[in-house]
Each structure stands twice: as C-alpha cells, then as structure tokens.
Design brief:
With 196 residues, this protein is an alpha+beta fold. The protein has five helices and seven strands; from the N terminus they run H-E-H-E-E-H-E-E-H-E-E-H. The protein starts with a helix and ends with a helix.
Length: 196
C-alpha cells in the first residue's frame, strides 16, 4: 500500500499532471494542515488567517500549489512568531484572490514585518529567489526557490514581492489554463461546480 501511495504521489508531482482546483480551497487545506502552528508558543497568541475573494478555479498541479502555499504559510507563521514589535498588534495572514479574466491573482500578506534585508545572505529583495540565500540563522535558502519553481516552472505562473515594508505581500498570478487547454478547463470547471 505504501508503494502505491508513493507512486501516486510521485506521479502527481510531475509537472504535466494538472487538474481543476479552486486555489482558495487549496490554500484553506494548507491552513488546516498547519493549524497547530498558528498559535505562538511564546505568547499563546493565535494568528488569524483571512481568506477573501470568489472561488478561483485553475487547471494546475494541485500538489505543487499546495506545497508552495504551505511554504509561504510556514514563512509567515515564523515571521510573525519572531517579530520584535509589541505583541498588542494583530497577527494576521491574509489571502486575497481575484479573477483577472484568463488568470487569477492571489495576494498573500502577513504582519510579520517583512523579509529583513541585510540579514544573513539577503542583501536585496531579489536575493530571496536565489538558491541558498536566507535571512534565517537556520534557513536553507530553498523554501522560496521551491515556491518560485512550483508557481512558475510547474504551473506557468508568476510570483513576486509586491510589498516588503512594513509587512510582506507576495503576489501570485496563475493562468486559469495552459495554452490550448481552454476547452478542457471549461469542461472540468462545469464538472467541479456541479459536484460542489
């Protein structure tokens, strides 16, 4: 059984496996999977996660998108936990999704204070996308590289830092469907909406 699950997961990680999925749902599943980490062990304060926007269906590699969201969430949770400001302010992670016609736009923000430029090997914001660059003492420098590859290489989207100061906002743009796949997208979208 373990071999079957491992083979199925391996097949789903391949870049050519795509399925119709609501990215809000994928994000929500990632939040639920990491829910136990949303409470700060030092202060007992719980980080609130806010999800705004309509259903946003895309034809994507759902596994890679979920791993990218989980990494972004883990970074946000850690930044919020490590922030050096007063604990009286809100601890929030916000997902705002919008339909942009042939693509969806997702802004993920947190109140963790942004990526500390000048700390570790991060000298400018673009360094976060380079393998091995990190602002954390125990970081590997692979997390955001993985996010970039999951969004851009596997799912033909883009990911950029929209804002870093005072807090971080990442903007992700995903096409609703790859070139030549509009008919498949529309067919699978009808099925997905019928099943919900």
């Amino acid at each position: 059984m373990k071999e079957l699950v491992a083979r199925k997961n391996s097949e789903r990680l391949e870049g050519n496996h795509s399925e119709i999925a609501d990215v809000r749902q994928i994000f929500g599943d990632s939040v639920r999977a990491l829910g136990y980490r949303l409470t700060n062990k030092k202060t007992g304060k719980k980080t609130q996660v806010v999800v705004r926007g309509p259903e946003l269906y895309v034809l994507c590699n759902k596994v890679w998108i979920s791993y990218a969201f989980a990494n972004i969430l883990m970074n946000s949770i850690r930044a919020i936990s490590d922030k050096k400001r007063s604990s009286s302010g809100p601890d929030n992670i916000t997902f705002v999704g919008t339909d942009q016609g042939r693509k969806v736009q997702i802004d993920i923000s947190d109140t963790g204070g942004g990526i500390p430029i000048g700390r570790g090997s991060i000298q400018k914001i673009s360094d976060i996308w380079e393998q091995g660059r990190t602002s954390k003492d125990d970081g590997t420098g692979f997390g955001l590289v993985f996010v970039r590859d999951a969004i851009q290489t596997i799912n033909n989207g883009t990911v950029d830092v929209l804002q870093n100061d005072p807090n971080l906002t990442l903007r992700i743009n995903l096409p609703k469907f790859p070139d030549g796949e509009q008919e498949r997208y529309e067919s699978e979208l009808k099925k997905a909406k019928k099943n919900n």
